[in-house]
Amino acid sequence: MTAATPARPTGLRAFLAHGAYVLRDNPVTLIAFALFLFIVFCAVFGPLLAPYDPLESNAARALQPPSADHWFGTDSLGRDVFSRVLVATRLDLAISVAAVALSFCAGSAIGAAAGYWGGWVDAVTGRVVDTIMAFPLFVLAMGIVAALGNTVENIVYATAIINLPFYARVARAEVAIRREAGFAQAARLAGNSDLRVLALHIFPNALPPMMVQLSLNMGWAILNAAGLSFIGLGVRPPTPEWGIMVAEGANFIVSGEWWLAIFPGLALMLAVFTFNLLGDGLRDLVDPRRRT
Amino acid sequence: MTALLDVSDLRVEFATRHGVVSAVQDVSFTLEKGETLGVVGESGSGKSVTSYAVMRILDRGGRIAEGRVSYAGVDLRAASEREMGAIRGREIGMIFQNPRAALNPIRKVGRQIGDVLIRHARATRQTAHDRAVEALRAVEIRNPEARAHAYPFELSGGMCQRVVIALALACDPRLLIADEPTTGLDVTTQKAVMDLIAGLTRARGMSAILITHDLGLAAAYCDRIAVMKDGQVVETAPSAQVFARPAHAYTAKLMRATARPGARLRDLLETPKPEAPRPAPGAALLVVESLAKTFADGVRAVKGVSFTIREGESLGLVGESGCGKSTTSSMVMRLLDPSSGRILLGGEDIGTVPAAHFPRDRRRGAIQMVFQDATDSLNPRFTARRAIADPLMRLTALGGRERAAKVEALAEQVGLPLHLLDRFPHQLSGGQKARVGIARALATSPKLLILDEPTAALDVSIQAVVLNLLADLRAELGMSYLFVSHDLHVVRLLCDRVMVMRGGEIVEEGDAETVMERPAHPYTRSLLDAAPVPPALAAETPLMETARCAP
Amino acid sequence: MAESGGHGVGGAAGVMGGSAPYARRGPSPTALGRWLKGERLGEDAAIALAAGRAAARARARMIGRRVLLSLPALVGVVIVSFVLTRALPGDPAAYFAGPAADAQSIAEIRAQLGLDRSLPEQFLVYVGDLLGGDLGQSISTGQPVLEELARRLPASLELTLSALILSTLVAVPLGVAAAARQGTWVDHACRAVVTAGVSLPTFFTGIALVYVFYYVLGWAPAPLGRLDLLYFPPEPVTGFYTVDAVLAGELETLRGALAQLALPAVTLALFTMAPLARMARAAMLEALGSDYVRTARAAGLSPTRVLYGVAFSNAMLPVVTTLGMVFSFTLGANVLVEKVFAWPGVGSYAVEALVVSDYAAVQGFVLAMAVLFVALNLLIDVIYTLIDPRTRQGA
């Protein structure tokens, strides 16, 4: 793509300027990006920053309410809830990132192929996606984990499978509306093979809506993974994980020890909220038509 | 006698994210009873906004900032929303472009008309249906009783526009505002719809405002014409006078740029230029033999067409929507596989190479295309430079530096300033995008260029420039053109020969002048009759001939 | 995907528009009325009447088509369920035989379960069992799975339906108001609800509500099931305690059942409100910006009529389509909410079965939910076909 090189510096600068514009224009997006960086920071450095060992129990300080020593209080075994919430960030994020990455790659590939070639490719992938969608998705994930075995990897696979239809559908729709677009025809006239037209011309233009879907699904994937561990699938105690911590804390809520369940729940909510906010911001950033 | 509608010093503002923008300013005009006023202007001139302001149905964020709008003595700016509701539909009816979208998709058309009748107390629930059928009969819809039960999606575009007219006229308003009522309709449908509007308004003694970008249409149907540019009225005068003695330079330019009988390609330009020489046709370049296409759903889009394009020759392919002209050009272009027939390019049958494999064929570069919608035909994520370079990368063996030089040479050839090369399509104007599209088509030095309505999406003044550019390029490079269009007058400017297509078949073929002056086939004649034509300019023909366009 | 437009789970797939009351009528009421009175009809009226009858036939055909279209989904569901039951970790026979079993008893159990036969044969047996209503036995309770599911299903349905009704009643007006008054506080409130709603983990909302309304305020009863021990369950008719209590005239029991139902239903409703409100707002905005709304305004129809008569009826179609997606979310979230509130429905049955690795029960639950969901989607599609005239175009 040497022809594009002269354009690149200006292109990059324009992109950054546009990014700055989007952030200035919409403070909510700015907040979302800041939260996102904060969550990534916690995931990377959480174990280093945690004031206590998240697994170390101490019966003497069990079920203490939040205090200066234990910001989020302690649980029934005397473990520091703050440390556990912080350390859990990495695992929760890893599960959902892995699941979303898997389903994004697979879903967009089959969706794009179905949208571009149509015919039997479309018919077959359509049937597969329809079958997945014929299940209530969380229930299907339960069934998959129950069938494949109760492990963290299987949580990832199950979450990936139930996310797949969303990417496949968006990719198919976005590719199909551009299949006969003027610029795709022009690319064919310029000597691009079908694969090139799809990969270099159509797919990049289908990316903006897919990015929004990606961000929204990230939140949904976190919710699903945490939901599965809440009902006792995947992650096993004593591993710190938000869903399982909420499940453990639920037993104490009726007796008033609220901090056990509320703090991991809030952390989970914050993460999902961030990705949902990010969705709209991402769309503004990647859509060149909004650059002015 | 006071004017029915009196608009003075109107200014309309829109709140956008770049602050408040004036869409229309200092607009003044009057409309007498029984008079038809044409508001003419190019896109973005504020002609639609003006009419929406009169009706007070501006989009969210728009407001009348200054001025007076008075209808039959009533100050519409000061009227309450309730009073406006009584005026809309009963006193002033309005029809829009894109009639299909203008009707509620899930309500039977008879009921939609009935709603309006009931609203303005012209009918009760019991009589609404019969009155709606009457309204449909008034717009000359056959079988109105049955049509009243149809949903908009079951009707053709022209039929939908008749329904919209019936809806607008159901309560016998005294003023009809028609906002581009025939844009997107075929030329014969356009004539039928316009004749209907003209007939009804005249019979009912109504006043009308016709908003259009088409000077010819305005000339044919309006008593007076107001020309708008950049939100202002630059000239208002009786139709005949506007054409005979345009007072404003912009009006003159607009009229000059409109394709019309007697005018040559160069006459369309502001600054005169010597006519581009037409290359003498050489040997046969493209021979199409009994080309046919039947789609999977059984539709026979093209039923065996044959024609020849010689080297350096420009052939026009004219027809209304659905006649098969696009399918034909797609097959010749090798984007679509024909069902039967041969496509010979320089004696070789390229029709045998499947469309899916043709991008890699060595003859790909020899046939290129300029698309109808320049915006749609440019990848939104590619700069102009990248778009023009794309065919060079795929189809030529040029190195990086040679390619960069070639891109700039092409840009110069089509008159695209080099600093625009690093812009994305959305940063370019319509005319600039058209130039990028032409430069890209020229990149591989094609022998045959297919022009698929290349100016249909452009304003008339830009259309004139682009058509001239295409004529110059043909003279310079000796290419052959297949020019696909719905507009016979535009085709005549650029083509040596013309084919008229209808229902998948070619009904007439011949020398461009001959077909235009002495059409042999009745369909060609009806096409020519239907196309509204502005009177020839005073300088070109005696003034008397303009009389034919007076209503 | 090929059928996504028609198959109700398409979510936001198509903004197709539609309206209920007018589309259902076949022939024109006036024409039909005159015909019934024995008047001779003009040619036009006769055509209209015939068109009406043809439309009714087309409608019936379309509904038949919808039913047929849901069959592949059902077949897919059964195949996936079969694969899931046969994909149990390790050797199911060894698993069912228990840890103390020797090789011979494992082989016996394998033969007994039919696991020694080929997969296609096993599939046929599986389908045969399903047709006979046999979902296997729960190893923890020893009861047939189908029987237990059937017994617990009313509790889940009561919860799900009350939550859906609640969220529709709040979300649709909210979304419509937000679109009608774009940029005002209603709009901001709507967006807050939407963004917060999709970010709230249901199990967390449930626990937070329990803490506030049970522990702190003491307004709600203990989150333990459908009815406090003080009350006797009403005579079962529908299986819905609230409805049954009304039927039996036991108002105290109704109060008790409603008190128990309130928190879980609100929890579930909060979760389903977001997609509904979002779609209602988006569809309404699109309708309000459409050309046909402009036509209606230009014709002088009153603002109320434009908003509710024209825009709203068109905007409700995508909302109906969204209901499919919402059902999917609800049936999943149900599991979590039932666990939090110890609600004796099918979801908590599945969770209990999961804990003790009772796989037949879990897979029976998955299959039952899938079949229920397919049926719900079919219902949504049929409703859609009835209210949108354009879906009948192809028939």
TrEMBL record, chain A:
One of its GO terms (cellular component) is plasma membrane. It is found in: Cell membrane. Coiled coil: none annotated. It is a multi-pass membrane protein. Gene3D superfamilies: MetI-like (1.10.3720.10). It comes from the Bacteria. Keywords: Cell membrane, Membrane, Peptide transport, Protein transport, Transmembrane, Transmembrane helix, Transport. One of its GO terms (biological process) is peptide transport. Its main location: membrane. This is Peptide/nickel transport system permease protein. Residues 89-279 form the ABC transmembrane type-1 domain. The chain crosses the membrane at residues 28-50, 93-116, 128-149, 218-238, 258-279. Belongs to the binding-protein-dependent transport system permease family. InterPro entries: BP-dependent_transpt_permease, MetI-like, MetI-like_sf, OppC_N. Pfam families: BPD_transp_1 (PF00528), OppC_N (PF12911).
From TrEMBL, chain B:
GO terms for biological process: peptide transport; transmembrane transport. It is a peripheral membrane protein. GO terms for molecular function: ATP binding; ATP hydrolysis activity. It is found in: Cell inner membrane. Transmembrane segments: none annotated. The keyword Cell membrane applies. Residues 5-255, 286-528 form the ABC transporter domain. GO terms for cellular component: plasma membrane. PROSITE patterns: ABC_TRANSPORTER_1 (PS00211), ABC_TRANSPORTER_2 (PS50893). Keywords: ATP-binding, Cell membrane, Membrane, Nucleotide-binding, Transport. It comes from the Bacteria. Its main location: membrane. Gene3D superfamilies: P-loop containing nucleotide triphosphate hydrolases. SMART domains: AAA. It holds the Pfam family oligo_HPY. Belongs to the ABC transporter superfamily. This is Peptide/nickel transport system ATP-binding protein. It comes from Rubrimonas cliftonensis. The lineage of its organism: Bacteria, Pseudomonadati, Pseudomonadota, Alphaproteobacteria, Rhodobacterales.
TrEMBL record, chain C:
It is found in: Cell membrane. One of its GO terms (molecular function) is dipeptide transmembrane transporter activity. It is a multi-pass membrane protein. Keywords: Cell membrane, Membrane, Transmembrane, Transmembrane helix, Transport. PROSITE patterns: ABC_TM1. GO terms for cellular component: plasma membrane. The keyword Magnesium does not apply. Signal peptide: none annotated. The keyword Transmembrane helix applies. It comes from the Bacteria. Gene3D superfamilies: MetI-like. Pfam families: BPD_transp_1, BPD_transp_1_N. Residues 153-384 form the ABC transmembrane type-1 domain. The chain crosses the membrane at residues 67-88, 159-180, 192-217, 257-277, 306-331, 365-387. SUPFAM superfamilies: MetI-like. Belongs to the binding-protein-dependent transport system permease family. PANTHER family: DIPEPTIDE TRANSPORT SYSTEM PERMEASE PROTEIN DPPB-RELATED (PTHR43163:SF6). This is Peptide/nickel transport system permease protein. It comes from Rubrimonas cliftonensis.
